[in-house]
Amino acid sequence: MDIRERIKEGLGKKILEWKEHSARRIYFTVDSKDIVNTAEFLFKKLGLRFATASGMETLSGFEILYHFTLDKTGEYFTARIFIKGKENPEVDSLACLFPAAEWIEREMWELLGIRFLGHPNLKHLILTEEWPEGDYPLRHKNES
Amino acid sequence: MNLKLKALTKSIWVFHVSTGSCNNCDIEILDCLTPRFDVERFGIQLVGSARHADALLVTGIVNKKSLPRLRRIYEQLPKPCVVVAVGQCAISQHMFRFGYNAPQTLDKVLPVDLYIPGCPPKPEAMIDGIVKLVNKLKGVK
Amino acid sequence: MSHRVIVPIGPYHPLQDEPEFFQLYVEGERVVDIDIHIGYNHRGIEKLAELNHYDQVAYLVERICGICSSSHPYAYVLAVEDILGGEKNIVPERALYIRTIVDELQRIHSHLLWLGLAGHFIGYNTVWMWAWRYREPVLDCFEIMTGNRNNYAMFKVGGVRRDIKDEDIPVLKKTLDEVAPALEMFRGAVMDDPVIQARLKGIGILTKQQSIDWGVLGPTARASGLNIDVRKDEPYGACDRIKWNVIVENAGDVFAKTVLRVLEMQESVSMIRQCIDKIPKGPVDADVKDIPPGDGLGRVEAPRGECLHYILSDGTNRPVRHKIRAPSFMNVASNKVACVGGTISDAAITLAAVDPCYCCTERLAVINKSDNKKIMSGWDLIKLSQEKTNKIKEELKSA
Questions:
Q1: What is the CATH code of the structural domain delimited by B3-133?
Q2: Any chain A CB within 8 A of the CB of C271?
Q3: CATH 3.30.460.80 fits A3-89, yes or no
Q4: Where in chain C is the domain with CATH 1.10.645.10?
Q5: Which residues of A55-88 are buried (b: 16+ CB within 10 A; e: fewer)?
Q6: Domain residue spans in chain B?
Q7: CB C327 within 8 A of CB C306
Q8: Full-model pTM
Q9: What kind and span of H or E run contains A103?
Q10: pLDDT, tens digit, for every residue of A68-114?
Q11: Less Cβ around it within 10 Å: N or C end of chain B?
């Protein structure tokens, strides 16, 4: 079975939207509470490699993209989740599944303020320890 | 002219610190030691501890995390000493000056004696800069 | 006996005194835990990329790292071209070959740099001097082709900024002819030397499963048996138009990583030679004007692993979001498992074996678990490592 069909079959109703940008770039949206199950399916069942995750502030909340890849074919499958609201964004951590997620979640926490529940070591990684709390550099604070 | 500094010009021992750089300047500094440029024949040596150094080579934008460290290293350097700003980042923070992690330029933190511009400065430019510094210390125009 | 050691692991600045980057917790001679601190080189580039337009961002990302100075702009340019429909659909043929030539030359100079530093760490200063001496012709080549030894400014969206002149090709060939025998000499020196084998084999092992869990990339992953290489998985530039092999080793130790890098350099020489023979005439720039809205992912095989850039565009002339993931971000984190269990005299070479791009990591401190205090100065860890090599030399001589 094709890898895309296996993903669609394995995740089923969890996939809210599916977009194929090109032959090797597939983006799909899942609910933020399904991300651990999705990541477990992609990493453990299908053997995709976790490349990285990128967070971003949107008009109504936050968006995180988790990039997984199948090295054999060079395809990238990106799972997109939305977190509504800007007050206390939080999502489950993937660090329990694979340690490759530990550092990137720390970085997203300190630059965007997204709390990763269950992360073993959520403290500053690249900013100094004395960085003022509540100051998240990647947020659009003063921009119109 | 300070007698010690004048004596030092015969054989300057340098200590190098990087305060948030892309490492290009750092590698070009190390390149000066390699067989093509070989500054060791002039007596210039890279030392392992700031307490043995006469000159401090600083690269990088001096970001928030490295600022306290830079100050501590400068305090350890036996005075008198010279401070050299190597590369565009150390001189003016280059294109990172609008970033959130670049509070001030190097010369607001330490008294800089020599600026070597370039991104990165070629080893020849660095040697030329050191020669100018040595001449300045000796009082030669 | 417990002791504390401060180790500056920055090969590029082997002389730093203060704040730790890696805190190694030891009991006796064994490392039991490690805490990694980074961020001393953080300059806020992702945020700055949102303030600059697409051509300026190419200039900005070049200065993320000085050694993989062409990998980051290449990955960024591929990300933007991904929004537009893919590199192969936009970029002219000649530009694809020029991109590969620059990329592979960069790999040679980066691996030679690492080889020299690894040699210095284990006490073979001659290797350091010779490896860096052979880097010079490669840097001269860059200067002739691009104008600068280190920041080439060759990549732009839609092609390359400068063409390679016909009179530069013989210079390139002469450089390769000069470097190739040196690489053969390094290969013999590394693979056949009993002291190097005794010193590096079995040190800092990263198993295949650990490599998968920690998501390591590049030579670090290929030395543990993982066959991943972006040039094979998703060919870019001229990689699918020339013949070359992915080098994979299985032992996962520092020796495997060293051998792998030497063999990769020889592969790169062959790739550049093929590119020079096959490069067609033609334009080098597609003159792209506007970037439509969309997401783009671009990746290249930097000397340290897969370098990934993600761009979100909204149709204006600036990116909305630019995510940069350097390969060392994954590789350095894996030191948590590679160093633990080894001795402190092996710590220096183990940490250096992932070839950390020291734009994210610089120094090291070893801390005694029971009383949390440090002892030695920077040189000491490297000295410990060099002393171990001397001990092995003595043992082999008397054996």
A1: 3.40.50.12280
A2: no
A3: yes
A4: 45-329
A5: bbbeeeebbbbbbbbbbeebbbbbbbbebeeeee
A6: 3-133
A7: yes
A8: 0.91
A9: helix A102-112
A10: 999 999 999 999 999 998 888 999 999 999 999 999 999 999 999 99
A11: C
